[in-house]
Design goal:
about 525 residues; aspartyl protease; binds 2-acetamido-2-deoxy-beta-D-glucopyranose; signal; transmembrane; Aspartic_peptidase_AS
Length: about 525
Amino acid sequence: MRSLTSLPLLFALLADAATLPFHVHSPNSFLQSRQSSTSTNGTIPVGNTQNSFYYSNITLGGRTISVMLDTGSSDLWVTGSVPSTTNTGKSVTLSYAVGQAKGNINTATFQFGGYTVNDQAFLLVTDTSSFSTNIHAEGYDGLLGLGPNTGSSIYKELDNASGNSPMNRIFQNNASNTNNYITLLLNRQNDPASTNVTGQFTIGEIVPGYEAISNMPQVAIEKVYKLTDQDQHWQVLTDKDKGIIGPDGQPIQADSIVPKAPDGQLVAVFDSGYTLPQVPRDVSDAIYGRVQGAEWSAAYGAWLIPCGQLVNITINIGGNAYPVHPLDASSSDFGVTFANGGTACLGTFQPVTSAFSLLGEYDMILGMAFLRNTYTLINFGSMVSSGSTTAPAYAQLLSTTNWDQAVQDFIAVRQGGQNQIGAAQYALLPAGQEQHSPESAAEKKAHYEEEVLSRWPYILAGCIVFVVLVVGLCVWRCCKRRRARRARAAAQAGASTGGGGGAGRRGGRRVCAAARVAEYGGSGDDACEPRV
Ligand SMILES: *[C@@H]1O[C@H](CO)[C@@H](O)[C@H](O)[C@H]1NC(C)=O
Ligand SMILES: *[C@@H]1O[C@H](CO)[C@@H](O)[C@H](O)[C@H]1NC(C)=O
Ligand SMILES: *[C@@H]1O[C@H](CO)[C@@H](O)[C@H](O)[C@H]1NC(C)=O
Ligand SMILES: *[C@@H]1O[C@H](CO)[C@@H](O)[C@H](O)[C@H]1NC(C)=O
Ligand SMILES: *[C@@H]1O[C@H](CO)[C@@H](O)[C@H](O)[C@H]1NC(C)=O
Ligand SMILES: *[C@@H]1O[C@H](CO)[C@@H](O)[C@H](O)[C@H]1NC(C)=O
């Protein structure tokens, strides 16, 4: 999604750009793939900086560039210079938490995982002055949006197939469409059992050893309304009445803000561009509010809890349980402290704030702290523009977190190797003593607006019915009057139909307002934009 993270401090805290012991794809092997495409395959190593940024190398115009992998947006942008590139003269501005990516749309040869695309459109960001951070120091010099093509601002600006996103270009060029999928495997730093795992990204193939993902249920990608398909993401429904199992082992009850979501289910977006998962405030409170010593931090907009507290959360999707590693449910990566200066860990399932999903298209964003627990496959299906398949897009998830192993890791890392999980200090408070985080006045207002705006299809339909009725009434009254006049056969002054017309225009204006807001939410760079 657009905002890389909602913790401004996070950027400052990230020290060394650690590079994992990757074993494939030197820059040379990328260049080689142009000549002999059989010598490589689509398995691409993924770098990780402090569990907060995941990135891979692409080649653009011959230059190898590390780009953040973002399943929540759909544009490619890079900073610095690109050797063999053509400037289209058209400019675009994309807004992210890190700053504005602004520049001209260029085209160059794009290579990734053994695939080569000529004249790939991308944003060449020449001015990085608005960036709040040195992204290069965090391991990347650009961002590769892996979302649906309809979400691409470049595609919208160029207004034809030449603006298609990189993944779309790779898939639309391919004669076979069954392999139109990507997979993502993220590793976890500071986890003794994850040192063996190398982050991997693949195109059209499965990471060896993870073949079991093919047997996992294909979970349908939930589509947004046609008019707002700029806001389409890789989003799915959680399981009915048990989408999120909380630390007490009970399902956390939360109502969806998505009007068309079935009762008891939430709409969740897979977003590798978000460090912290974003959840409804009540859900975040239910996860952390019963922890002894939990403290709400207004500065971070998140809960702080004692680092030794094991937080047990499971997400259920497609009838399968995906336990969240306790090292992901609270994080020691941010160096946070309680108000009294004591060491704290950050509750990673952060409450969403204002302007979130203003049109009511999703309830939560499953960011990196969730995605580290799954091997994730996304089949683009019919969401490939100019593609050849009509099969619906879907996601498959394979759990990579073994709960018993995860608990052992947690004890080793957070409890000094001594199992204290059952200790009195770590017992949850009774439900009646749950703490709640404060909701600001602005947030209340945004939620209210959201409730109204998210119902725009119904409002639109209502307005159309209203207009039709009013017009019908006018016509009917008109005819009746004319007939009466004719019957009287008197040549008097004509009767007014103004009242009916006025009501019709009022209806029309409401339709307009709803339609304008729908576009607004979808356009890249305004306040209305959800933080995705
Ligand atoms: C494809 O990737 C896998 C996993 O990295 C590797 O073992 C295999 O050798 C690769 N195949 C080719 C042809 O490069
Ligand atoms: C990207 O390429 C550079 C060499 O140009 C290499 O040092 C680095 O490890 C690569 N990064 C990833 C994530 O593969
Ligand atoms: C797309 O539109 C641009 C002008 O915006 C034009 O130069 C280009 O030829 C068009 N490409 C295709 C594939 O239609
Ligand atoms: C492209 O098609 C070939 C077969 O025609 C297939 O082997 C390959 O995996 C496909 N690649 C993608 C990205 O779909
Ligand atoms: C790392 O991999 C090796 C070989 O696959 C395995 O024997 C070892 O148990 C793994 N270590 C961890 C911590 O998983
Ligand atoms: C975590 O929660 C699950 C149920 O959601 C339960 O089966 C498991 O025993 C719990 N583990 C711990 C250590 O609390």
